[in-house]
Design a protein that fits this description.
Largest sheet: 4 strands, mixed
Number of domains: 4
CATH superfamily of the largest domain: Beta Polymerase, domain 2
Shape: globular
CATH class of the largest domain: Alpha Beta
Helix content: 55-70%
CATH topology of the largest domain: Beta Polymerase, domain 2
Number of strands: 15
Structural class: alpha+beta
Strand order of the largest sheet: 3-2-1-4
Number of helices: 43
Distance between the termini: 56 Å
Radius of gyration: 33 Å
């Protein structure tokens, strides 16, 4: 059984049904009769013109086209097949083109009297040439015209095209002679590919046969190496554009890795190399087994079904399975919530397993092509990056090195010793070599040998632990194990989260892919591949005494996702069961279990707590308890955040984690906290002093005295330099707010710094100005000098690709902020008006239950108010305005956005500077903040 078969199946099973009779969809003879009747009526009416006939014919054609597509759509939506739908749409298009041709050669350009005339041959090419058509796809046509008499053919072609365009058809076409077809196919691989799948529609069949005969003789019978190389290079480039992982949570059904285009590419290559006419012929030439061909058909059917639903649902050629569409497609395909997984998560798990099966088929074809020497041997480096290669290969008698890759020495190696199913990957890791697809194929046929006995085998567990903790590139080998199905069977808990998508906008990958990337990130840190991003981590990682515990915790930290209970608690229990099996001691097992249980605490504390508050550090240190645990949790947190997706990690988060680490290290080291704290502040001040060589010592000391000690450890050096420059511009008094803008392409955000006199409504006004300018705040930092000047750093989502455009936009936002801070504007009205003119980037399918918690134990001076809920434009302004109206003063704010979820924390006091202690006041604050989610500014009736 394939991975796709084992996936969660739709709750509503397919009904056995016969295809819809095609004559019902589009009856060309009836249409021909109606046009003839219309022609006769117009001929008998002197007031009518030729244009009347054309307009009437177009109306009849449009009606027939709409009728046919409506039947195809209803058939699909009543649980019809995807390929059936694509085939029906192609049939409708065939009949439409034939009907238009009949009309043109009968009424527009009839054949000359007295004899036959050669016109042209019309052929479908590309996907349409395979007799499949998606609802929103282009119609790709080849018009073959005779070289000796092209005039009439060109007239007919032009008339047909104008009719198609007037019907709203998107047509891709070429008009060529046979000689031109052959010449251009020799010069252009794209044209060669399109001609590979030509299908005769109508016209001069002898002309079409001549083209096919010459194409076969002069193109297909040549060397296939160039064609194969070009198609594989094209695939690599396409996948790089769409994202190299097939487990991106918003996959592209057509162009993404594991999508329909991959299946098309396999077929094009196989057809070119093996010269088959149909995919079923791939069994006869030995490329696929019957089971693999059935898998090919299942993958194709499933992807076509999803694609057709996508196009019909959006009424456009949408290929990206975006969040706002996934839930609707899941409903249309009949998925239901089951076993703790929402219907949309079960649907996407099935989708990703199909994408994995497409990858398996790709490997099979590539292996066969190598045997025929139709493609070069692959290099693991090309796909995965640098991989160590040893001079002497470490192999056993059951394995050998073939074509630079590990392969099996005999077909019975796994039957004779099932441990070899793990040992194969161990050999690959030790030698830094890829695994031959034939060996992987044999692995997938032997997966049933991975049973309870093998999972309990000490040697198998020893080898697996060595793979997992390898200092080479374990992410690569673990991914190979996962793709082959070994990892999920050897560690069944991991098998439960294979291809599991978390339906949120924060995580970019499936859970299994996230875990493998987290393990790979540890190797990156150890090899210092990102030295500027992780200056402290590069030092800390080498001093960890229990590296194995960190690796296992990274591998297991999200392994219990998708269950009813908290994944951290459930994951801890998984760790306690698995670690002894892998040979860990009781103490090491508890360390791994603790890391899994608490893997979110450092990230949460760094991003959502005031690190300048000593209570924050003391609470965190009490949880961590030892310096060794702090080191492990620090490294693990970095690896986890980096594995979430592109752009999630940034230098600001790195700075927060470093500050939390340093402050906690002081407490856990014991006895030197005051000295060490002062030393780090002194070093930070000295660092800034060196960066300001033109300042006098007196000026610098006066400036440095304006900042509290917490500032020196929380802000990074570039921020400190910018703040010094901006504050120096204000001198003693600040006549107006000062703003600064910088763009960051790699992070996808624009950073805005605002310096203004501090007052209770400051953050609210800044947030309101951003909302009014359609700027979405994703993060914010707030610092306040000892003389009452606020330094606010706001991170907004980038809107333009080019820096110049983004800077102009940011300057407009900065002007709005300055205008708001000067007063005299009705911010509520401005925000409400702006919100009505632009939409949120959060799909409507997301639902986040709003929560408000109020705590007085998290800070010595402030009441901590935590607010979470569905993010939307203007939310921060609404929350901060509500807090101000409640008579509260915001001492610091920690703004975090995790995809569609806003998770904001405000440290507040009353206007007298005291905590809010009354339970009645707590409930009042909570109810007012929850009302913000129920009645947003600008909503009807608000």
């Amino acid at each position: 059984m394939s991975a796709a078969q084992a996936a969660a199946k739709p709750a509503r099973r397919e009904a056995k049904r016969s295809p819809t009779p095609r004559a019902i969809m589009f009856h060309r003879e009836t249409l021909r009769a109606k046009i003839a009747a219309l022609h006769d009526a117009i001929q008998n009416d002197p007031s009518e013109t030729t244009d009347s006939l054309r307009a009437g014919a177009l109306g009849l054609l449009r009606q027939s086209l709409s009728h046919g597509r409506g039947i195809a759509r209803r058939t699909l939506e009543s649980n019809g097949g995807g390929l059936e739908c694509a085939s029906n749409l192609a049939y409708i298009e065939d009949e439409l083109i034939r009907a238009i041709h009949d009309y043109v050669v009968t009424y527009v350009h009839p054949a000359p009297a007295g004899g036959a005339s050669r016109e042209c041959a019309i052929a479908a090419v590309g996907g349409y040439g395979r007799a499949t058509l998606a609802p929103g796809s282009d119609i790709d046509l080849l018009f073959l015209i005779p070289a000796d008499a092209p005039e009439r053919g060109e007239l007919v072609v032009g008339a047909i095209l104008y009719m198609l365009w007037d019907l709203g058809q998107k047509v891709g076409y070429a008009t060529r002679t046979v000689e031109e077809c052959v010449a251009e196919a020799k010069a252009d691989m794209t044209i060669r590919t399109s001609l590979l799948e030509t299908r005769f529609l109508l016209g001069d069949r002898s002309l079409f046969k001549s083209m096919k005969s010459r194409f076969d003789r002069e193109i297909l019978r040549g060397d296939a190496t160039d064609f194969v190389a070009a198609k594989l290079a094209e695939r690599d480039a396409r996948i790089s554009r769409r994202g190299r992982s097939r487990y991106l949570v918003e996959p592209n059904v057509k162009e993404g890795k594991g999508g329909l285009r991959d299946l098309n590419t396999l077929y094009w290559i196989a057809k070119y190399v093996y010269r088959v006419e149909d995919a079923s012929d791939l069994v006869g030439v030995g490329l696929f087994s019957r089971a693999e061909y059935r898998l090919f058909c299942r993958c194709e059917e499933y992807l076509w079904r999803v694609r057709c639903h996508l196009h019909f649902l959006t009424e456009r050629p949408e290929e990206r399975l975006s969040f706002d569409l996934q839930r609707q497609i899941a409903d249309r395909l009949g998925y239901s919530t089951r076993n703790g997984l929402a219907s949309v998560e079960r649907f996407m798990k099935h989708y990703f397993l199909i994408a994995k099966d497409v990858g398996d088929l790709t490997a099979i074809v590539c292996a066969a092509l190598e045997e025929k020497q139709a493609k070069p041997y692959p290099m693991l480096d090309r796909v995965f990056g640098p991989f160590p290669r040893n001079q002497e290969f470490a192999v056993t008698g059951d394995f050998s090195i073939g074509h630079g890759r590990v392969t099996v020495a005999a077909p019975d190696v796994f039957a004779r010793d099932p441990v070899n199913l793990i040992r194969l990957f161990w050999v690959a890791d030790r030698n830094g070599l890829a695994i031959h697809p034939d060996a992987t194929r044999l692995v997938t046929l032997s997966l049933k040998r991975i049973d309870a006995r093998l999972r309990a085998n000490p040697e198998a567990n020893r080898l697996f632990l060595q793979i997992l903790t390898s200092r080479n590139t374990p992410e690569i080998v673990l991914r190979l194990m996962n793709e082959a199905g070994v990892l999920g069977r050897f560690v069944p808990e991991f098998g439960r989260i294979v291809a599991l998508m978390q339906f949120n906008m924060y995580h970019h990958y499936t859970v299994d892919e996230h875990l493998l990337r987290a393990v790979g990130n540890l190797s990156d840190i150890e090899k210092q591949r990102h030295p500027n991003e992780h200056p402290l981590a590069n030092e800390v990682v080498s001093s960890i005494s229990n590296r194995t515990a960190v690796v296992l915790a990274l591998f297991l930290h999200d392994i219990a996702k998708g269950r009813m209970e908290d994944h951290s608690i459930a994951g801890m229990e998984v760790a306690r069961a698995l670690c002894p099996r892998l040979g860990l001691s009781a103490a090491d097992t508890e360390t791994v279990a603790w890391l899994v249980e608490t893997h979110l605490i450092m990230s949460d504390t760094a991003q959502r707590r005031d690190l300048g508050d000593r209570t924050t550090i003391a609470t965190f240190a009490k949880c961590v308890q030892t310096l060794e645990r702090l080191k492990m949790l620090f490294i693990m947190t970095i690896c986890d955040i980096r594995a979430v997706g592109p752009g999630v990690w940034n230098n600001w988060k790195g700075g927060l984690l470093r500050t939390l680490y340093w402050e906690t290290e002081v407490i856990l080291a014991g006895g030197h906290s005051t000295i060490d704290h002062k030393t780090r502040v002194f070093d930070a001040r000295a660092e800034l002093r060196s960066a300001l060589p033109n300042w006098s010592d007196l000026d610098f000391e006066a400036y440095a005295a304006r900042h509290p000690q917490a500032y020196w450890l929380k802000a990074d050096l570039p921020q400190k330099i910018l703040h010094a420059k901006l504050l120096n511009m204000t001198e003693v008094e600040m006549p107006a707010p000062v703003t600064d803008v910088s763009v960051n392409r790699s992070w996808g955000v624009t950073e805005m710094t605002v310096i203004a006199p501090d007052h209770p409504h400051l953050l609210s006004l800044i947030a309101g100005a951003c909302a009014a300018a359609s700027a979405n705040i994703v993060d914010a930092q707030v610092f306040t000098t000892t003389d009452g000047v606020a330094l606010n750093t706001i991170f907004i989502t980038r809107a333009f690709d080019y820096d110049d455009d983004e800077i102009r936009r940011a300057d407009r936002i900065a002007y709005s902020i300055e205008r708001a801070l000067k007063g005299g504007v009705d911010m509520d009205a401005i925000v409400a008006a702006a919100k009505s003119s632009y939409a949120s980037s959060i799909p409507k399918s997301f639902r986040v239950h709003p929560e408000v918690s109020i705590n007085n134990s998290l800070s010595g001076r402030f009441t901590v108010v935590e607010v979470s809920g569905l993010d939307r434009p203007g939310l921060l302004y609404e929350l901060t305005s509500a807090i101000s109206r409640l008579g509260l003063n915001i001492g610091s704010a920690h703004i975090a956005t995790f995809g569609e979820k806003a998770a904001d924390v405000f440290y507040v006091t009353d206007f007298a500077g005291a905590k809010i202690t009354s339970p009645i006041e707590h409930e009042f604050i909570r109810s007012r903040l929850l009302e913000t989610f129920a009645n947003p500014i600008g909503a009807a009736g608000a």
